[in-house]
Design a protein that fits this description.
The structure holds two protein chains of two kinds. Chain A is 34% helix and 21% strand. In chain A, the strands form three sheets. In chain A, strands 3-2-4-5-7-6-12 form a seven-stranded mixed beta sheet, sandwiched between helices. In chain A, strands 9-11-10-13-14 form a five-stranded mixed beta sheet, with helices on both faces. In chain A, strand 10, helix 8 and strand 11 form a beta-alpha-beta unit. The radius of gyration of chain A is 19 Å and the shape is globular. Helices cover 46% and strands 11% of the residues of chain B. Chain B has eleven helices and seven strands. Chain B has a five-stranded parallel beta sheet, with helices on both faces. The radius of gyration of chain B is 18 Å and the shape is globular. The chains are: A alpha/beta, B alpha/beta. At the A-B interface, helix 3, helix 4 and helix 5 of A face helix 5 and helix 6 of B.
Chain lengths: 328, 303
């Protein structure tokens, strides 16, 4: 077993990007202010010093152009890694994602692959207000041929990037901005995490807490609180929300019979809705209570520190919902 | 252009015209699924540009792309198979009229989203520049594509990074039913290039020799690493926008004026005046193309 060190998610992502740039000459980074400035969240800080501006490409403020231009380069053999400064800005690039990156290979054949890795700082919790706090994984679930990853810790954030390179398909990497500073154990030599595989972080037979991103640490904390009340939670970190790890979800629910999803995007038509459908289709007979969904409120995400927290799931709201399901 | 080049151009332009006319007949008979966008009247653009390119150049097309692909050497049988939704089609029948690509020809795709391939050409050129490979990226689009934001983002990036891209705007006067004058504050599409400090050329796109020579000159500028060039080819879509377009937005007088500038008729006259072409040769070519297309149609249906 390899030795590990404690590093932040920012450092882990930076190391994964550096590794990919060193090992594969067809990889380049492209985005706004990612060079000398190091990106809005400083993830790429210092990388341009090693690889130069030809491979660490600062662009105009042109999200649509960034994604589609990168797709054109990918079509000719490049492996671009894009940074969209805030996931909210990805709305400007949907044509490139939906009509090009998700379609070119499927339409024209395997010689026309456009594998993109699109990293996007996402989500609330920083009081950035309605257009700097959204997370679009729920919205993007509805697009065939996209893979969507939502890491919750440094090792997965780095490992999923390596896994995305290996998969050579278009991958949206949803990086929750409140996790960047979070420390965690990372192997001395980074190891790829296969796409589409969740992880069971805690075993329990009473209730399933199925989460991703920043709600994984919240679910683990809620599980501690519940354990003190003699309720044992099974905590699943999805890691990839598309494709869902259906077998892990079903394994958990068929054991607990009770559960909830905890997501960063709005619940209507979102990740929890899809998990519910998976359970309805294949684990209905195991359910002892309705499956519950926690997620962003159906409203804009307000800036005010007094208002924003109420928009998102929390340790408390997870615990409250768990008690409700246990007493159903 | 040499005499041989003019004769080659003429045959290819006639092939495109015959292909599109036959396709239109098949549509009217209800024998083709979906929709299609014919390029009748714009054959000199497709052929003149393609003849000025090399095998290393990467072509990006659009929804009105049959001529571009035939001009690059596309196989009519595989194109018809694609349009018929057959497995032998270039995209296995998944794409239809608007979605064909051929790797061996460096023909990187026709596409159904207006202006959608413009940034792809810029990205292909970026790849060429990073890896110092030969060839330039060429993208065909209509003047209607200028209304899309991605057009401007793409030209901007190509210009600031001095990428080897040839932007080829076929100004066929109408974005579906909307005339260029109604949607543009500047008279000519080529004027847009100035905002990006980009070299531009405006050409009669119904004149095969002018189109070829301008493209060849522009290509050499682009290939020399001097940055992108914008070419506006002024032309006219003789056919309607797509199936079922009766062209109520333009006058029959205007159509008649442009019919006099039909690129095929003009080239035929030029060839005949030079003693390179006869009515008999024309009849023979027509018969030959009809036979070729009939065979392609049969191959496509049976595939």
């Amino acid at each position: 077993m390899s030795t590990t060190r404690q590093i932040s998610m920012s450092a882990a992502i930076r190391e994964a990007l550096t590794t990919l740039l060193r090992e594969h000459e067809e990889v380049f980074l492209i985005g706004e202010d990612i060079g000398v400035y190091g990106g809005a969240f400083k993830i790429t800080r210092g990388i341009v010093d090693e690889f130069g501006p030809e491979r660490i490409i600062d662009t105009p403020i042109s999200e649509a152009g960034i994604v589609s231009v990168a797709a054109g380069a990918a079509l000719m053999g490049s492996r671009p890694i894009i940074e969209i400064m805030f996931m909210d800005f990805m709305a400007l690039a949907f044509d490139g994602i939906i009509n090009i990156a998700a379609k070119w290979q499927a339409t024209y054949g395997d010689e026309f692959a456009t594998p993109l890795i699109i990293r996007a700082p996402a989500g609330g919790g920083r009081n950035y207000g309605p257009t700097h706090s959204q997370s679009f994984e729920g919205l993007l679930l509805n697009v065939p041929n996209l893979t969507i990853c939502c890491p919750s810790n440094p090792a997965d954030a780095a490992g999923l990037l390596l896994g995305a390179y290996d998969a050579a398909t278009t991958v949206i990497m949803v990086e929750h901005k409140t996790l960047y500073a979070r420390q965690g154990p990372v192997a001395e030599h980074l190891e790829p995490v296969p796409l589409g595989q969740g992880a069971r972080l805690r075993s329990g037979s009473d209730i399933s807490l199925i989460a991703y991103g920043r709600h994984v640490p919240a679910a683990l904390q809620a599980a501690e609180i519940l354990a003190a009340e003699e309720v044992q939670a099974d905590v699943i970190d999805l890691r990839t929300v598309k494709p869902l790890d259906a077998s892990l979800i079903l394994d958990s629910l068929s054991n607990t019979g009770r559960g909830m999803s905890i997501e960063e995007s709005p619940v209507i038509g979102g990740v929890g809705a899809e998990i519910s459908a998976v359970i309805m289709a294949s684990a209905f007979e195991y359910l002892e209570a309705p499956f519950a969904r926690l997620g962003a409120a159906e409203q804009i995400i307000p800036c005010s520190p007094a208002l924003e927290p109420a928009c998102f799931p929390s340790v408390d709201s997870i615990a409250v919902k768990a008690r409700e399901l246990m007493s159903y | 252009m040499t005499d041989d080049q003019l004769l080659t151009a003429y045959r290819t332009m006639c092939l495109i015209r015959a292909f599109e006319l036959r396709l239109n007949e098949l549509f009217l008979q209800g024998l083709v699924p979906g929709t299609t966008h014919l390029c009748i009247g714009q054959e000199a653009c497709a052929v003149g540009v393609n003849m000025a390119l090399t095998a290393d150049d990467m072509i990006f097309s659009n929804h009105r792309g049959h001529g571009h692909l035939l001009g690059r050497g596309g196989d009519p049988a595989r194109m018809l198979a694609e349009i018929f939704g057959r497995p032998h089609g270039y995209s296995g029948g998944r794409g239809g009229s608007q979605h064909m690509a051929v790797k061996d020809l460096n023909f990187m795709g026709t596409h159904g989203i207006t202006a959608g391939t413009i940034p792809l050409a810029v990205g292909a050129a970026l790849n060429r520049k990073i890896h110092r490979q030969p060839g330039v990226a060429v993208v065909f689009f209509g003047e209607g594509a200028i209304g899309e934001g991605i057009f401007h983002e793409s030209l901007n990036m190509a210009a600031i990074w001095k990428l080897p891209v040839l932007f080829v705007c076929e100004n066929n006067q109408y974005a579906m039913s909307t005339s260029h004058g109604d949607i543009s504050p500047v008279s000519n599409a080529a004027e847009r290039a100035a905002a990006y400090a980009m070299t531009s050329r405006m050409v009669d796109g119904n004149d095969i020799a002018a189109t070829y020579e301008t493209t060849a000159e522009a290509r050499s500028v682009v290939a020399a690493g001097e940055g992108p060039v914008f070419i506006e080819l002024q032309t006219y879509r003789i056919s309607g926008h797509s199936r079922g377009d009766e062209c109520p937005y333009r006058s029959r007088e205007e159509e008649a004026q442009w019919a006099e500038r039909d690129p095929i008729a003009r080239l035929r006259k030029r060839l005949a005046d030079a003693g390179l072409w006869t009515d008999a040769a024309d009849t023979a070519l027509e018969t030959q193309l009809a036979a070729e297309l009939a065979e392609a149609e049969e191959t496509a249906r049976e595939s």
